[in-house]
Amino acid sequence: MDAEVKQSKSRKITSRLAYSFGAFGHDAFYATLSTYFIMFVTSHLFDKSSGAQGTKMIAYITMIIAALRFVELAIDPLIGNAIDNTNSRWGHFKPWIVTGGTIGSVVLALLFTSLGGLNTSNPILYLIVFAILYITMDIFYSFKDVGFWSMIPAISFDSAEREKTATYARVGSNIGQNIVGVVVMPIVLMFSTKANSGQGDNRGWMAFGIIIAAVALISALAVAMGTKENDSELRKNTEKTTFKQVFKVLARNDQLMWLSLTYGIYTAGMAITNSLELYYFTYILGDASKFTLLGSLNAIIGVFAVLAFPPLAKKFSRRKVFFLAISVMIIALIMFALAGQSLPMILTSAVLFYIPQPLIFLVVLMVLSDSVEYGQLKFGHRDESLTLSVRPLLDKLGGAISNGVVGLTAVWAGMTAGATAGDVTSHGQAIFKLMMFGVPAAMILIGAFIFFKKVKLDEKMHAEIVDELEKTWSTHLETDETPAEIEKEDGITTLYRNPVSGKLISLDTVADETFASGSMGKGFAIKPTDGQVLAPFDGEVVATFPTRHAIGLRSDTGVLTLIHIGIGTVEMRGTGFVQYVEKGDHVKQGQELIEFWQPAIKKAGLDDTVMVVITNKDMPEFDYLKELGEDVKDSEDVLKLSNTELSN
User: Fold this and answer.
1) Which of 75, 183, 434, 481 qualifies as a FRET site for 592, CA 20 to 30 Å off?
2) Total-model pTM
3) Is there a catalytic annotation at residue 564?
4) DSSP H helical ranges for 414-512
5) What pLDDT was estimated at residue 238?
6) What is the pLDDT of residues 458-478, one digit of tens each?
7) Catalytic entry in 381, 549, 564, 586
8) Which of 76, 46, 245, 73 shows the shortest CA–CA distance to 150?
9) Closest CA to 272 of 123, 110, 397, 366
10) Nearest to 350 by CA among 326, 332, 330
11) Phi and psi at residue 631, in whole multiples of 5°?
12) Cα-Cα-Cα-Cα dihedral sign, residues 173, 176, 181, 182
């Protein structure tokens, strides 16, 4: 037995590490594609001898990249459906992670070359081949991207294990994304035959592309070999997500729509400045090698910025954190615009610009998640997967806009075709600074203004929404899911086991008027002596809440039950609660559902009374098996429900 336990732990650790390394390579690839590839195209694909023809080709290539990235946005939903419908001996996701990783990596390496001199010997053919290669690479990257991040639920059905796997992945992702900025210029200069004023040459950039492609490929293979998909009936998914459905959800959920508009404008502006930073070091400072310092600082500080979010949000609220972060970004842009060639000023400004980015991302992610419940209360339908798919689409939209703007900026400012810092005129510098600082500042401020005026979904509003959903939880079940029909028979009896150990008290004496009035249904309350909540019967989990302080169940005989832990505990936003099951799970009587920490509830100044109510429209006949005031264990039956096969 000990050997089996050790082997199981070893498999879990191996899986986490493999998945983390996969995230490392995956985000290193994305950072290269979204930020540094355009630098290669504008500054190194052509040399000075190409003259006006080279500048024209750079403009064409830039427009092709932007157009193809917009096209790829419409393909994404089809990619998700293709992955869902993939059935192989290796599972749904691994075939696409490996295929996407292999093809994407090979094509990325090819794109960091002149395709055998085709760019100058036959420009039209080069543009055609380039477009084919780029869209191929982008599509297969998307297959890998969707497959990789969709894999977490398939690795484990245990919520705690999923959280650990996701945490490992975010660490790997953060390192992979930032490490590229650290190594890009050292690699380029190491393999270049000419220093070229610290910019390197085509050979160095080709080596950089090959190395990143190799890392991405190896990391994809590591995911395939180091992780294991768990197959189950629970994972069978026939839902088809279309691009039209995403916009339908956006249109009817006003908070989601305004947040999406905010984030779409903001992320495009932010991406423009981030993508032009290497240009600043190359053409304004005149020393591209110093960019490594910025990459190193951002990699370290990014971790602390993420860790700072929970305490900041708790102390100041998410909304205040958002506006504080926006203020810091605007100050950073002003400082950056005035930095000139002062390296300390440049680094300080760039780091100040980067620090708020993880904070804003997390604020948006939290509000986006909360908009799921907002839409559920408003429309009676929970659009979880569609709602959460909006953010990746907006990130790609921002990247597409950024690629187009960066390429055109390089052309307008004269930062192309082998130019150096000395070749850029004062007029070119003015254009560059306008596009790097002025345009992004305007976009960020517009996004912040929309957020201020239109996005009202904060922690307090969300708590009220969840509280309202609890009161009418049985009318807000998934409308596209119907329980299996149960043949009705007279005389069916269900023994209802006590879910929490403690003292049995009357429901009408609790301090929550909604439960005490009986409007929620009939039942009882428990003054708990421990923090373990067990299933009172065999049945299905039909409702869960993001705050993890309540759960809705349907017994195999049709009894609908809401178990609510504490009074006002929605305000704790999940702190002190651990949920061991998920919506759709079938549970056995006595199986642990939730664990809560009583000291955390008392520290928050709240009542820890557990309310248990039956909410069927046609109420079953109640027969209480225990006396009020009696101490009951979670292994004892407290109710006998007769004629329980009733309508929900």
Assistant:
1) 481
2) 0.73
3) yes
4) 426-433, 439-454, 459-471
5) 43
6) 888 887 887 777 766 666 544
7) 564
8) 76
9) 397
10) 332
11) -80, 125
12) positive
